[in-house]
Structure formats: C-alpha cells, structure tokens
Amino acid sequence: MPRIVFNGTDLDFLFDHWIWLFRGFSSYAKPKSPSVIGEGRISRMGCKEMKKKIIGAAVAAAAMFGTISAQAASLSIIPSGATVVLSGFDLAISGLGNGSTVQLFTNGSSGGLILSGAPTDVTFEYLGSETGALNRAVENENGDELFRNYDPDGAFLPGTASSIGDTAVVNIASGGYVPFKFDAAHQIPSPPVCALGLCLPNPPTYVVETATNGGDIEGLLAIALFQESSTSVIALLNDGTGIYDYDDFALRISVTAIPLPPAVLLFGGALIGLGWLTRRRKLAA
Ligand SMILES: [Ca+2]
Ligand SMILES: [Ca+2]
Asked: What mean pLDDT comes out for the span 238-258?
C-alpha cells in the first residue's frame, strides 16, 4: 500500500504515532488491574518509549509546518527609489489618502510589486477611478481584463464599467513581479468630415498607453504602490492627464494566508499529549 507523503513528510508516520498515542492513553488511564496487563499496559520503559515517539512526531510535524510556512504567499515592493506624498486624492480608501507616502514608478524606473509563494490565488479588487480618461487594469499572465472605469464608448473596447468592490481572483503560477498592467486611453478629437458645405461629426480616435508592473511604463503614466500588510498592497495609476493625484485607477491586490495545516493540529496534539503524560507520571510517582 503506498504511503501518504505531503511536502516530503510521511503522513503515515505521523498517523501511526497518533494511533499509538491514543492506544497508550486509553490503557494508561485505567486503574491497575490484572485485566489490563497486556498489550496496552505501559511500563516505565514503555512510557519513555512513548515520549520518544511523541517527540519524534512533534519534530516531524514542526518540520512539516515550517515547510508550509515558508511557502505561504506574501506581497512586497521593490522600491524604485522615488516616493510621493498624495495630494488631490479623491478616492475613499481606508488607511490611504492625502498625506500618505507611496512608492512611485514612472517611465524608465525599475522595481514594482513582487509575489512570493506562488503558485497561489491573487485577489484583485477595484477601488475606483477619478479621471476623464478611459482606464483599465489587465492581468498579464492570461491577458484578461480585470476592471475598467468606462462603459462602451463607440466602437472602442466595448464592455461594462466596473463597480467599486468588484473582485477578480487569478491563480498566478510563478513568483516575481505580479503580472498586471494599467492602460489609459486618451481621446483625440477628430475634425469633422465636410463636403459640399455640409459637415458631419467624425468619431474620436484614441491613443492607448500602458503602465506594466515591474516593466515598461509609457509616456507620462505612473504607478504608485502602498503596502497595507504583508499580504495586501494598493496599486494606483496616474494616467498622465491633468494633475498628478494618483487616483485615476485604484486596485487592491492581496493574497490569502494559508489555512491551518493538519501538521499544526498534530504538533499541538502531540504537545498536549506530552503534558498529559508528564502529569500522569507525577501523579503516579
Ligand atoms: Ca483627484
Ligand atoms: Ca485624478
């Protein structure tokens, strides 16, 4: 029968120790009588042996937990060396606003938002937009549009404007720069088409610029990053038009702390067992 191995730790080994532990407990707790002398009865030597086994299981579980902890996802920022203090910021974001210092990334700068612990689910949340430009956020790995701040505008990128609080969860395969970018479409008015003294309006054209996390940032676009915690960062776009207030598109990017792994339960259980055993030994002495 194949053994169950998780993260290089033999789970059968841990489980065997649990079974052993409980069999030991049940017999040890009973009053001493000839009827329980036998397989389950623990002698002083057996008790020592049990302690060794419990410690062995605890150490194995701790090592396993350590491995899992090292793989927990987190977000961090490689700074470009430039920061900016927000002013004219008009989005309602708890903990971030005018006076906040954010990391700044512009045309030609390096650095950006880094993911550790991939593969993992990354949650993107739309926090709003204050601008006249048509801005979007795109997840680069799959090329999927995450959010946009505009409804269909003629034939240009048909779609529906996102609502504040919308979220998208993307499984990102590898660590490094979180694969997302902003783009900003600036409308360029077209002159009317005139013939025979009659003029018809001409649809506008657009120029689209992009700002990629950890990569190229075009034109006058800028990304600002604000670290909320080790698992959450707010990414702001300045779309290059008007004032530099960094509220032209805002995302919260976050990863989830891992659930309590079974190894913690084993480890905790083993420690409790060890304490119980010591107490029983003291009472028996
Ligand atoms: Ca503003
Ligand atoms: Ca703005």
From this structure: 89
Cα 50 to Cα 84, 215, 276: the distances in Å are 61, 57, 12
- Ligand 1 centroid–CA 91 distance in Å is 8
How is residue 282 written in tokens? 């003291």
What value does the mean pLDDT take over residues 184-205? Answer: 88
SS (H, E, C) 30-85: CCCCHHHCCCCCCCHHHHHHHHHHHHHHHHHHHHHHHHHHHCCCEEEEECCCEEEE
- Segment 144-167, tens digit of pLDDT: 999 999 876 555 667 789 999 999
Cα separation, 248 vs 2, in Å, equals 56
State which H helix or E strand residue 264 sits in.
Answer: helix 262-284
Which range among 41-50, 218-227, 240-249 has the greatest average pLDDT?
Answer: 218-227
Comparing 88 with 3, which gets the higher pLDDT?
Answer: 88
Peptide bond before 179: cis, by omega within 30 degrees of 0?
A: no
pLDDT digits (tens, 9 = 90+) for 87-105: 999 999 999 999 999 999 9
How many angstroms separate the alpha carbon of residue 244 from the centre of ligand 2? 7
Exposed (0-12), middle (13-18) or buried (19+): which is 129, by Cβ within 10 Å?
buried
| Distance, CA of 17 to chain centre | 35
In the chain the first and final C-alpha atoms are separated, in Å, by: 43
CA of 97 to the centre of ligand 1 (A): 11
Counting ligands in written order, the one closest to the CA of 242 is: 2
| pLDDT score recorded for residue 241 | 76
User: Which ligand has the minimum distance to the alpha carbon of residue 87?
Assistant: 1
Strands 232-238 and 198-200 turn out to be unpaired
More confident residue, 249 or 51: 249
176 and 114 in contact (C-beta within 8 Å)?
Answer: yes
